[in-house]
Design brief:
Number of helices: 2
Helix content: 25-40%
Number of strands: 6
Distance between the termini: 13 Å
Largest sheet: 4 strands, mixed
Order of helices and strands: EHEEHEEE
Structural class: alpha/beta
Strand order of the largest sheet: 2-1-3-4
Radius of gyration: 15 Å
Strand content: 15-25%
């Protein structure tokens, strides 16, 4: 049940923004094996002057930051798959791979409240976190 934030420096047309969200979600399904219906993703557009990036980027307006808060337990290999899946899928949308940063933050299940205020460690999630 990852909660994902995508931050960009440029407003894209509606189809591209939807495509970015779908690309990240599809990458999470592929790499972390989350259920297809488990979609908790936000896309935030910043004014470029409020989102500094390295001046060495060829197209700084395309810089994309993806932050994935998730239950602890995914393997390093699963995280590597996620990084690759996200960058490959965003590249199809015209975002260069070297303009994408992905941060995964592992959060213990006892630190996550879900399903009416229950600790995630007390709930049958319906999927395994250890991938």
């Amino acid at each position: 049940m990852p909660s994902t934030l995508i931050e960009v420096r440029n407003r894209h047309d509606r189809d591209v923004e939807t495509g970015i969200i779908d690309a990240v979600h599809d990458a999470l399904v592929a790499a972390f094996r989350i259920p297809e219906v488990d979609k908790h993703i936000r896309l935030v557009v910043h004014e470029p002057e409020r989102f500094a990036v390295p001046p060495t980027l060829t197209s700084p307006e395309l810089y994309t930051l993806v932050i994935v808060d998730c239950f602890a337990g995914r393997s390093v290999d699963a995280k590597r798959r996620l990084y690759g899946e996200i960058t490959e899928r965003l590249e199809v949308l015209g975002i260069p791979a070297d303009h994408v940063t992905v941060i995964v933050r592992d959060i213990p299940t006892e630190s996550w409240g879900i399903r009416g205020g229950q600790a995630a460690c007390d709930v049958d999630l319906g999927f395994t976190v250890e991938v």
